[in-house]
Amino acid sequence: MDSLIIKAAQSPRIRVADNVTDSLQNIIARIHLLRGQEATAFDINFMSCEFANELKTNFDYLTISEVNIALTNGVKGEYGKYYGLNVITFLDWIKSYVSSPERQQAIKTLQIKQITQKTEPTADEIEKIKKENLRNAWLSREQGYSYALVGTYEYLKSKGLIQVVDKIELRAEAQKRVEKKLKSKKIVDIINSVQAELNIINEAKTILAERFLDSLSHEDLNNIIK
């Protein structure tokens, strides 16, 4: 039973499902057959419309497949009380199904499964994120606020869009910026040479990214991120 509920719970929920009333008509007609009772097309249509409204109002987190399980088990005497085949009975079966131990366990299992099956972003998703970061970086330059640009540099470099013309000049400017930042932060201790070199390298990357972004028109940006 748990496996059936897990499968049913993964289909579209009532809040977003198409043709809910039509689906309920089929389920209710089947329930009448299981019970050995006849119902007119008018009766089935009326019950389906009323039942659909109740489900959309109070149980829109369920799926049509779950409703089918609830009514099938209900007509077999496994859920709730029986007041005749009508909307009152159907809702009682739904309530019993929602609170049933098997559904509670199935939903818990499904949640754990969804957590453990989380996948890494696809290459397309990563590319989309990087393009959005590039767009935000460009806007930051346009609007005059700070934005971390080392990642932007790495992306631009991977696309072959950044080239270093004068490494000596670049390093000198980067070192000057790092020294200025250290002084502005009133750092007294002498940082080790490895950390100092890393700071200079990252600052150089930032400078190159800034220069590239400042040279881009809005049209140029759109051509890159399209």
Describe this structure in words.
- By secondary structure, the chain is mainly alpha-helical.
- It is built from 11 helices and no strands.
- Helix 2 (20-35) packs parallel to helix 4 (64-75), helix 4 (64-75) crosses helix 5 (87-98) and helix 8 crosses helix 10.
- The radius of gyration is 31 Å and the shape is elongated.
- It starts with a helix and ends with a helix.
The global form is elongated
| Helicity level | over 70%
Describe the main β-sheet briefly.
none
Beta fraction of the residues? under 5%
The whole-angstrom Rg is 31 Å
N- to C-terminal distance: 48 Å
Order of helices and strands: HHHHHHHHHHH
Number of helices: 11
Q: What structural class do you assign from the helix and strand content? A: mainly alpha
What would you say about this model in short?
This protein is mainly alpha-helical and 226 residues long. The protein has helices spanning 2-9, 20-35, 41-58, 64-75, 87-98, 101-116, 123-143, 150-158, 167-184, 193-215, 218-225.
Topology:
Layout: H1 2-9, H2 20-35, H3 41-58, H4 64-75, H5 87-98, H6 101-116, H7 123-143, H8 150-158, H9 167-184, H10 193-215, H11 218-225
